Amino acid sequence: MHKVLLVEDEQGIADNVIYALTQEGLDVEWLSLGQPAIARCQQSQVDLVILDVGLPDVSGFEVCKSIRSVSNVPVIFLTARGDEIDRVVGLEIGGDDYVVKPFSPRELAARVKAILRRQSGLLNVSAASTASVESDDSQSSVLVRGRLRLDSQLKRVFYDDQMLDLTAYEYGILEVLMQQPERIYSRELLMEKVWRSPEESFDRAVDTHIKTLRAKLKQVDEQADVIKTHRGLGYSLKAEQ
């Protein structure tokens, strides 16, 4: 059973979310403050965190930053603020998704299950395309592009033999780009291939995840220049890295 940590100070909202998630067979732990949530994630593993931005003791953004220092657990933000800049900030600091209040608990439960499925290896990317790799074994799950190596079975990506700590969306974007180097993928096409419900996200989500993905590549090599931006068109993976 997947363990979900809900961090929300409004009991009415928490009760509705807990009911919706438990109906989907998820184990939910509820905390109403940010600091105990940070301690909880440092102590033991949870599978996903639902995090309210407007907590009374500390901002949910700050909680996410602290969680990201010790864990790559998926984080979904809950907030009454719907401005795009807030959503961009949430994604840039490591959030996986963003739900604006008021929201449907059933919709939130669907998003939770989608992220958990991706974490379990069921990304919305063609496994057959990934398996047609530069290998003598036609059943190989390893895709190699220059200094990048992706294992679709383990859902891991290595750059110069160093494993990248990627979110589900970052992994999905990179997997798509690696399938056909030099092919330009529009933001709309990337969202269609990687997002479960692309119509529920926003245009800059892809740009934001590309930015965080580039930053993680540069943690391995400051000169890393793997992903090319084609203004007005989209993104591609450079054939030579």
3D architecture notes:
The chain is 41% helix and 19% strand. It starts with a strand and ends with a strand. It is globular. It has two domains: 117 residues, Response regulator (Rossmann fold, 3-Layer(aba) Sandwich); 111 residues, Winged helix-like DNA-binding domain superfamily/Winged helix DNA-binding domain (Arc Repressor Mutant, subunit A, Orthogonal Bundle). With 241 residues, it is of the alpha/beta class. The strands form three sheets. It has a five-stranded parallel beta sheet, with helices on both faces. The protein has a four-stranded antiparallel beta sheet with strand order 6-7-8-9, covered by helices on one side. The chain is built from nine helices and eleven strands. One of its GO terms (biological process) is positive regulation of DNA-templated transcription. It comes from Litoribrevibacter albus.
